[in-house]
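Usage

Read records sequentially. Each one opens with the input sequence:
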Amino acid sequence: MLRRLLPTLVALGFGLLALGWGLVSLQRIFAREREDAHAQVRSRRDALGHAASETLRQVLTRQLKEQIPAIHAAMDNPLAPGERFYLQFRGKPFLPRHTLSIAGEDMPARALYETLSDHLREGPPPAHWESRVTRLRAAEAALVANNLPRATALVEELLRHHSRHALPPDQELPFLLLSVEHLQRGPATMPLVRALLREGLPEEFGGISRGAGLQRDLLRERGSFTQADFDFLQARILRLSRLLGEPTRDFLERARETGEGRLLMPDELTEPTLVGEQWYVEPRGEGIYGISVDSAALLAPITQDMVARGLFGANGHMRLVGGRAVIPARELKVHVDLPEWARAEADIEARYGLKTLLVAACGGLAAAIFALAVVAQQRKYRFLELKSDFVATVSHELRTPLASIRLMGETLERKLAHAPEVRDYPTRIVQAADGLHFLVENILSFNRIDKGRWTLRASHVRLEELVNPLRDDLASATFAPVELITDMDDAELEADPSLLRLLFSNLGRNACAYNTRSPVRISVQARMIAGHGCTVLFRDNGVGIPEHEWENVFLDFYRLSPQGQDVHGSGLGLALCRKIMKLHHGDIQIASSTPEGTTFALTFHEPRR
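and closes with the structure output:
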């Protein structure tokens, strides 16, 4: 068959290759068109993104330059805002402020404050505090006596002594706080005492290195106190500030700001850089200056400006392309998104998808045509081969019984009266004639059912009445003894009796033909299943059927390979059985098969009402 199909396959193959080459070339053209369209959209997006990126770099540089004075002010004044600034000078970070309190719950500053407060009221002070406490008592006494000139002189003497004999911050601040509390007189407080609270002292009283005001000094020296001491001193200073009408808002804000933590910067920063998408820093001389930034807020006016200039629509937006912790300013990249660009790219993909689908459909159609042509040619030659095989088989099968009938008839005619050994010839003639009749009936029935020309004559029948005549049929069809065991369970069906007899006769004759045992044992068991119909199990003790052939034996004209015996047949028996079952809306399958025998399962479904 392959030799017959080879010219057709070669012609179809060349045609399919030519069509495939054309479809592949067409698909490449479509892909190139798609890439060109995407490139145009990307070009517009990249141009706007480059312009936005350059504008962003200029805005960052300008904003930092504008904030340089504020950074210097935050560096010099602890009360100035510093949380949004970064300053590193000669490798030492100053902003944002990151001074933390001493760990622990001890309160030495409060203890000193309370001790000095007790000694001011009564009793001699400790030896190393005697000069300060004595001067403070004298100044307070002058104020009580309303002797303002003497009080001013005593306060100046106290502050000069305090400046000459500097103390650690954890001692100095509690003493100065206690001094202001005792020397304040509300709105009438002398300027020198009021300066101790916020503005700071003149240089002659230590106002350069110390004496910048209790508010500033407490913030600057936070690292010298525990958190409990800091909270205690802050509360006392706040109370005094409010009592004297001094501002406290910036003091409170800086107290919350201080201790927020150190900002980590990359080593060897040599160019303007965006750090963590939150800080913009620039090296300037020996220092590194920076400001906190919000990229979305910075991009908003740039977006509005481009919309006003008609570069893109009002529904477009920009975003900073991040993904890195440190981005040099020269590498800043802004991504521009426009809904119309997304729609354009979606349209490009949709058109490309449609074209690809058409190419694939053409390829699939060509492959289907090729396959159908091959199958058609194969079936044509297969049909011719089957027809040839069928003619040869039927011719042989018809010739054999006819020759037997002729030979035995002639012999019977000559010798019947003279030789008793030929007395069984009439029986053998009948068997041969029955075999010929059965073969012809199978062929005719198969042809009528296969062509749809069989009219089903269904009637109410009992399976017992259809199976019992099988004994006589098999007895006349074979010389081997046959044992037929039935268990019909009073099964009844709506079926064509003649077709079912033909079905059981084919199964029985196959059981006798493919059998090497004596006697041939056949068991037919039927069970009615409520709501599902009837199941019939037909068992024999034949040679069995290999499992890989279970479905093949039901094919038209299919015969198993000989297994040590020569069995005559047309290959239509089981194929006819399946067609009969399908005509009754049922099915036949091989339930099991071993060298000890085969079991066929026949399923009859209840008719739909």
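Summary fields computed downstream for this record:
- The chain is about 55% helix and 15% strand.
- The CA atoms of residues 77 and 143 lie 32 Å apart.
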